[in-house]
Amino acid sequence: MTTQLPAYVAILLFYVSRTSCQDTFTAAVYEHAVILPSVTLTPVSREEALALMNRNLDILEGAIISAAQQVPSLLSLQYIRFGQTPVQERLSCLAKNNFIYVVANIGDKKPCNTSDPQCPPDGRYQYNTDVVFDSQGKLVARYHKQNLFMSEEQFNVPKEPEIVTFNTSFGSFGIFTCFDILFHDPGITLVKDFHVDTILFPTAWMNVLPHLSAVEFHSAWAMGMRVNFLASNIHYPSKKMTGSGIYAPSSSRAFHYDMKTEEGKLLLSQLESHPSHSVVVNWTSYASSIEPLSSGNQEFKGTVFFDEFTFVKLAGVAGNYTVCQKDLCCHLSYRMSDNLADEVYALGAFDGLHTVEGRYYLQICTLLKCKTTNLNTCGDSVETASTRFEMFSLSGTFGTQYVFPEVLLSENQLAPGEFQVSTDGRLFSLKPTSRPVLTVTLFGRLYEKDRASSASSGLTAQARRIMLIVIAPIVYSLSW
Ligand SMILES: *[C@@H]1O[C@H](CO)[C@@H](O)[C@H](O)[C@H]1NC(C)=O
Ligand SMILES: *[C@@H]1O[C@H](CO)[C@@H](O)[C@H](O)[C@H]1NC(C)=O
Ligand SMILES: *[C@@H]1O[C@H](CO)[C@@H](O)[C@H](O)[C@H]1NC(C)=O
Ligand SMILES: *[C@@H]1O[C@H](CO)[C@@H](O)[C@H](O)[C@H]1NC(C)=O
User: Fold this and answer.
1) Could you give the strand order of the β-sheet that contains 318-325, starting from the edge strand earlier in sequence?
2) What is the DSSP letter of 200?
3) pLDDT tens digits, 194-206
4) Are the C-beta atoms of residues 10 and 478 closer than 8 Å to each other?
5) Ligand 1 midpoint to CA 113 (Å)
6) What predicted TM-score, i.e. pTM, was given to this entire model?
7) pLDDT for 152-164, tens place per residue?
8) 3-state secondary structure of 133
9) Rounded-to-10 torsion of CA 468, 469, 473, 478
10) Residue nearest to atom 9 of ligand 1 (CA)
11) Is 252 in contact with 223 (CB distance < 8 Å)?
12) Cβ of 320 below 6 Å from ligand 4
């Protein structure tokens, strides 16, 4: 579901609101319609690469200036020199001139020692890299991506996960990128051990329904981990890459999903500098305290993004159901607003190791719309629905504290303010849904079981080929 277009400059930026006692700040996220190089297997010249980067930066400059004009800010016009790194020089100046923090994703190369057995033949490591410039134009953070996606063969993995944080007067920040979000490090460590308030997340995220659409999963991570989360996707609809947002722990504040136009989009929203981390959810408490809800319906198997779920069909406009797989039992109570029309919904459970395009152990409870009325299509991607829900309450006997609550409505829309999580682990509606429902899901991760399980990687040759065409051979050096 994720892929990486290296060396584009997807940007995300934020700045201090001058109006309050700094317990809030304004965040801005730009979904950039990236101008890509044409596909080639031979390296392009530095001049050519730079010219393309500058075309992208011209667009980003417009977005930054537009963001800065929408919030009172101080302007400063002093110039800083960066020598050999013109892209960073431009980013630094944009940050300083607009009194704004700027976050960007670029490539980084680092010479290595031939005595290092892992040093590549060309004598350098290349990293997928995020950089942060503060509002003085100073480089305050640099992060090398840890969890490379399958197509990122041009990049190296740092020897140890990099835990990168920086402090500001409006809270502490951590940074990671794209596929990292599915793993323990650095994301969970940043929140649990370093107690950051806000995560910065540049990404090139390919949407995969029903559970891994960008806005859906990134907002769920913010809620599950109780942090602010600023996600800046690139805008590339032909690769299903769209979906950026500004997410607070309690709900999304702004989000953008657009498969129809080729335009970039700037989002702005206020966030609390120090969102409360103190709410502790016991994700199994409610579900393990109740008896299985009546069902009587025949169970069936269905495939969700290569994983075999156990499902039951929801038979009426209202009901109570339980479905189990291995150690996980999922309970659902619901009432639909409308009659079923010609739509089928199912409740599913999955407890197992996912092995395609990445290896990660999941426990998932999901209510989802089946693509058609044929039960064999339950779990297939579907983007529209016509059934609203009056109420829902979903819970499961999770063996983890890392559960990400997702509610996705028709046409990939979020439902801010329409649902909540209780401390005993129920994901429940606060009001009837504003649109028809695609899915209501508790997406659990058991990080410690990623390695322990013995299933083999199921990566197909076809999947590899599809991902490879997005590689762009442009790399810049950072003089760090
Ligand atoms: C490369 O490794 C050699 C042997 O370990 C060491 O003496 C030298 O200082 C290293 N050079 C750099 C640039 O790290
Ligand atoms: C940020 O501040 C916290 C406590 O105020 C401190 O423990 C931490 O080391 C600081 N982090 C950085 C990167 O300066
Ligand atoms: C969560 O709730 C379950 C069931 O009530 C209980 O057995 C378990 O100890 C609780 N876990 C924590 C971490 O409090
Ligand atoms: C579902 O269970 C709740 C109580 O847990 C009950 O009030 C309700 O009537 C049940 N709904 C159906 C359709 O059985």
Assistant:
1) 318-325, 328-336, 389-396, 427-429, 419-421
2) E
3) 999 999 999 999 9
4) no
5) 6
6) 0.89
7) 778 888 989 999 9
8) strand
9) -60
10) 113
11) no
12) yes
